From TrEMBL:
UniProt GO BP: methylation
Single GO molecular function: methyltransferase activity
Species whose genome carries this gene: Chryseobacterium gotjawalense
UniProt protein name: Class I SAM-dependent methyltransferase
Location of the THUMP-like domain: 329-377
Keyword set includes Ribonucleoprotein: no
Amino acid sequence: MEHKILDAKVQEFINANLKTDLHSLLLKKSPFPEVSMQEIVQQIKGKKVAQKKFPFLLKEGIIFPPNLNLEQASSQATAEFKAKNLSGKSFIDLTSGFGIDAYFLSQNFEEVTLVEQNSELLEIVKHNWGILERKANFINENLENFLAENKEKFDLIYLDPARRDSEKNKKFLLEDLSPNLLEIQARLLKISDQIIIKLSPLIDISYLISVLKNIVEIQIIAVRNEVKELLVFINSEKENDHTTVSCINLESEENSFSFNYKEERSAVSEYSEPLQYLYIPNNAVLKSGGFNSVSEQFALKKLHPNTHFYTSDELVESFPGRILKVEIIDSKEIKKGEKFNIISKNYPLTPDEIKKKYKIKDGGTGYLIFTQTQKNKIILRSV
């Protein structure tokens, strides 16, 4: 496949315009008769995305696909994490997309197969993997057609179902995704004992466990406290009674946190008024719903059933989230014009309403926490 975009002069123009306003560029005529300005701008956008999202692709000769494919691709950080503990002889990605996950997963497998129904996207991936000196079997096929004809077995199947319909509306239920996971799970288990499915972080965990079989683990992956994706690990030999939920916050110094989903239902939290330390779970833990398991594992007490803040007199440094040393204050102690980082949980006022009421500003190094315990609404200040 010939790529006019790779012409040396075109590439020179792209690199020279990485900081140029893209809207103004689009209004200009392309200086190259065989390459449109839209194609040039797309490569500039791709390089800008790669700088933050997948810097390993900042090499000469790499081609970037349209925006939607860039948005849907995993980041290098999450892809590297996924590949850490997976290995075997044969690996297949049934929905390879731009191939970021497949690239890192493929490092630990001898035979790699990528299935992608978008022929132009697959050609781009094939070209890029040539630049990166990575080999694979590239199959331009619809997933369902491939499964109907495939006779091979694989050590690992990976798939990331499309989460938008034909009108680009977001979808979350498994039967609304493409492919419909509920329809193909049995077929997948016939060709591999191990399946990994990447899903939206918005999907409900209890729903997943109720509709999918053989889930050994659910991983909630955040990067710098922003939940990016949810991974479902399926193993043909496991039952859902043993599902582990793991919370990972990459690019932070926080420990990961895991609990047994079934045991969370029988776990019990103790309650207390605020003690010396306040613990605020990271967003991966909050997404997991393992609030009683947090209390039991770290020997912490909760402030209120609906306030997922924890407290203790002894510091528990391994806690997966923010830890603040705090004191209870009276509202009269808040001085007009002071700067605080404001947190409001299970409290009648939003941070903006709090700022307006007390005439305070965002910022500084201190925290004001507006919340409630089982007894009262309270205000805490970090010390």
